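FAQ: What does a ligand-bound record look like?

Like this one, built around S-adenosylmethionine:
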Amino acid sequence: MEAEKFLIRGACVSDASDMHELHARAVDAFCRGHYSDEQINVLLIGRTAEGYVPAIERGEMFVTESDGRMTGFGHATQGEVQAVFVEPGWAGRGVGSALLEHALRLAWRGHEGPIQLKSTLNAVGFYEARGFVEIGATEIDKHGTALPFVLMERRGEPPAEKQESDDEDRPRPVALDAYDSMAEAYAAAIEENPRSAYYERPALLSLLPDVSGRRVLDAGCGPGVMMEWLLAQGAAVVGVDVSANMLKLAEQRVGEAAVLHVADLEQPMPFLADSSLDVILSSGTLGYIQDWQALFREFFRVLRPGGCVVLSVGHPCSEYTLNETDDYFSTELREYTWRGLGAPIVVPCYRRPFSHMVDPMVRAGFSIERVVEPVPTEEFARVEPEEYAQLMRRPRVLCVRVRKPVNRA
Ligand SMILES: C[S@@+](CC[C@H](N)C(=O)[O-])C[C@H]1O[C@@H](n2cnc3c(N)ncnc32)[C@H](O)[C@@H]1O
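The answer part, i.e. the structure of the complex:
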């Protein structure tokens, strides 16, 4: 049968109760005949909708939808497919295959070697038909009842990007390859780099409210220097970055203290519920995003009323003069060659006029609260006196704080 068209998207917190109910229906429909009634009860016992939320927030869960109805969901972690569940009425229509392909792509992100899973007895044939082989058997003891599973693994390559999903026409993020390849060199340099430590970071931090006890998103968190600082201030931190290599380094730095998502800021963030954040911090990342209107709408959605965005971006004046462009008024993709982090590397970035920065924020509903054109601190003068003198006369960075009005949902 030809696979039907449906959307695969990351799961959001509001999906948890539908997932919970679908899970029960799927176990009930597919596991009977392979497990006893008692075992089926035990497979489902103690599950709650809330139980799915931590994995959703970690970006590990995804759903298929057709006509706005959930038809299945899956769960994958690095190196392992945790689960694939299909709505019983949708069996045999390509949902399971699509979920498994998506799960494999996620499981293979940042992972080398075979992907493993524990199959329920009824699903072994399904996985075998999709390249998995049996490598053993296991039993899980739950509430004193033994539940048999089959251990399986799949070798080879991640499936090619899917054609029939919402990412069909998604362009590749412009700076992904550059940051993935220089992640380690960037992480080694960034903490002490005077441009960051004595110029951009102090200005950004001066705009941040007290974050203790607040939920903060670091949008484009890179190797996690700011996340580490936020955690030390007592914030609950979510980090998003499009580069899996950067996130690996961030994970090494902050461990499990922050929730990390490999995600493209050009796309919605379904793993963040409406009005679920107090602050969004974005340091040096928004230049890589083409569509600021969609981005600030998404920031507006996920911030609670009264919450704020604090960001730094290349200053529109210096970006304009550095690029020797003859059209100030357009947003254009330019290429910058970075030296000093090993071999020279070309980093594409959008240059845009000032109005193309401010307008999307205001149109999304934000009020502009502070605009800072930073100058370097005295420490900068000690380590790089020539550049210090330049930065005292020529701006390179713009920092802005915008706020979602308290009376807006
Ligand atoms: C200059 S680094 C800044 C990293 C970090 N904020 C810091 O201050 O060290 C820019 C970061 O943006 C990330 N990035 C680039 N394009 C992105 C996109 N489309 N979505 C999410 N992150 C992106 C890069 O992977 C990189 O980690």
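Follow-up question: can I read anything off the structure? Yes, for example: Residues 173, 175, 179, 190, 220-222, 225-226, 241-243, 246, 264-266, 283-285, 288-289 surround S-adenosylmethionine (CB under 6 Å).
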